[in-house]
Specification:
With 460 residues, the protein is α/β, with parallel strands linked by helices. It is built from 19 helices and 13 strands. The record marks 175 as: Important for catalysis.
Length: 460
């Protein structure tokens, strides 16, 4: 293989890997391209990496160890047979057991899970914990399903998955469409199939060995990261500032909670159908009730609070997402991939937004990232900013292995320390490689270096 000594070589290598007949992989290449092009300063500066023709680290890193694909057959409430596809992409275990969430959403396919699994490798590396990278899930749509149907699907899913996972092999967790309820059902079935009560999943309900604060961890972690980033960059704190948030799931609502606790004023949230803009400040208790208990649309919020504006997706401005057009000091995309495009980034810049912190995985398109960096927005990339979730999953694994339970306060302190360490590491890596303030490049290089060093050390 040709050595990757120039950015042109790097681009050519990526092009060679693309399969023009597989559109599903486009999103995976988007993630890979961002990483490979931004770690170029490392290739130039360090012999070990520029000589990676010998170790083939890049080739090995971008190819999953294995992709497990299986059929999930279950019966709905009308006693009709339903068939879905289940996946687990075990991407890389150089640093520790495969680790990463499960996503249940109709859009799930192999390409999406490869993108998420690839990001997870570097994210998990940034936490400093011994965790490899993986992702899995299914095209099953939990929306509109009864609790009983969700349970039956989860149990059918686990009857296949259990063969491939284990506390030292692969430890799945939640992601979109998979929260405490689903993890509980999955854990119950794993236990039934194996008779083993062990830390094979994280995000478990507390009485099954779940860690306190895992539900809050990703959203709180994003805000802790942002607080540190603003401090390092000499910007004003979040206190008293208007913030915009997208999403209204686990990550978004806990980011809103932490923002409110720190005295900020989060004024927006979204779901797949529309956006709420409540300039007075969001009613978080109501949002939790709507989304975590009743599992209903945000439209209901405006019925309780007619002063708040509800904008359905069909009324979003042409080519943009309404939420990023609301003036804010700090923005928090916390819903899904590619939900912040170039037009949205232009709106954020125009309205004087100072920082964008990615709670969702890869929420910003490549063009949006370039535009935000060019305009000196402090951009906290997902693999650093949302690493708090997997970090607390790591703490859950430690607690399970040691048969311990840590207090909420202890986990919170450790989460804050972890997010601040990640932020400092990313900032100092960016500085070391001559791109001070560029957290995207800093995160990619710091994460890649840790994984690459382990892969080189373990040999081929
Ligand atoms: N949970 C975790 O610990 C972690 C999650 N993440 C990432 O954070 C993001 C959100 O995950 P999480 O909060 O757990 O998921 P949830 O399922 O709890 O919530 C997802 C939210 O995003 C909205 N959403 C999902 N898909 C779309 C879409 N295609 N278009 C518009 N809105 C959409 C949902 O709307 P609706 O209610 O209408 O479905 C919902 O508000 C994802 O990118 C995930 O990968 C990252 C790190 C850890
Ligand atoms: O907690 C975990 O293991 C993974 C969380 C996750 O899926 C993510 O960080 O994107």
């Amino acid at each position: 293989m040709k050595r990757i000594n120039t950015i042109v070589d790097a681009k050519a290598e990526i092009e060679k890997l693309k399969n023009p007949n597989c559109a599903e992989d486009d999103i995976f290449f988007q993630a890979m391209e961002e990483v490979l092009l931004s770690i170029f300063p490392l290739f130039k500066s360090d012999e070990v990496y520029s000589k990676n023709a010998k170790n083939a680290v890049i080739r090995r890193l971008i190819t999953p160890d294995r992709v497990i694909k299986f059929k999930v057959v279950w019966m709905d409430d009308n006693n009709e047979v339903q068939v879905n596809t289940g996946y687990r992409v075990q991407f890389n275990n150089a640093l520790g057991p495969y680790k990463g969430g499960l996503r249940f959403h109709p859009s799930v396919n192999e390409g999406i899970l490869k993108f998420l699994g690839f990001e997870q490798i570097l994210k998990n590396a940034l936490t400093g914990l011994p965790l490899g990278g993986a992702k899995g899930g299914s095209d099953f749509d939990p929306k509109g399903k009864s609790d009983f149907e969700v349970m039956k699907f989860c149990k059918a899913f686990m009857r296949e998955l259990y063969k491939h996972i284990g506390p030292r092999i692969d430890v799945p967790a939640g992601d979109i469409g998979v929260g405490g309820r689903e993890i509980g059902y999955l854990f119950g079935e794993y236990k039934r199939m194996t008779s083993a009560f062990e830390g094979v999943l994280t995000g478990k309900p507390f009485f099954f060995g779940g860690s306190l604060m895992r539900p809050e961890a990703t959203g709180y972690g994003v805000v802790y990261f942002t607080r540190k980033m603003l401090e390092l960059d000499g910007k004003e704190s979040l206190e008293g500032k208007v913030c915009t948030v997208s999403g209204s799931g686990n990550v978004a609502l806990h980011a809103i909670e932490k923002l409110q606790q720190l005295g900020a004023n989060p004024v927006t949230c979204t779901d797949s159908k529309g956006m709420i803009y409540d300039a007075r400040g969001l009613d978080l208790a109501l949002l939790k009730e709507l989304k975590f208990v009743r599992r209903t649309s945000l439209e209901e919020y405006a019925k309780v609070h007619p002063e708040a504006a509800y904008t359905p997706v069909s009324e979003y401005p042409e080519g943009a997402h309404a939420v990023w057009d609301i003036p804010c000091y700090a923005a928090f995309p916390c819903a899904t991939q590619n939900e912040l495009n170039k037009k949205d980034a232009e709106n954020l810049v125009k309205n004087g937004c100072v920082s964008v912190s990615e709670g969702a995985n890869m929420p910003s398109t490549t063009e949006a990232i370039d535009l935000m960096l060019k305009n000196k927005i402090c951009l906290a990339p997902a693999k650093a900013a949302n690493a708090g979730g997997v970090a607390v999953s790591g703490f859950e694994m430690s607690q399970n292995a040691a048969m311990q339970r840590w207090s909420f306060a202890k986990v919170d302190v450790k989460l804050q320390e972890t997010m601040e360490e990640i932020c400092e590491n990313v900032a100092s890596t960016a500085k070391e490689f001559g791109v001070e303030g560029n957290y995207v490049v800093g995160a990619n290089i710091a994460g890649f270096k840790r994984v690459a060093d382990a892969m080189i050390a373990e040999g081929v």
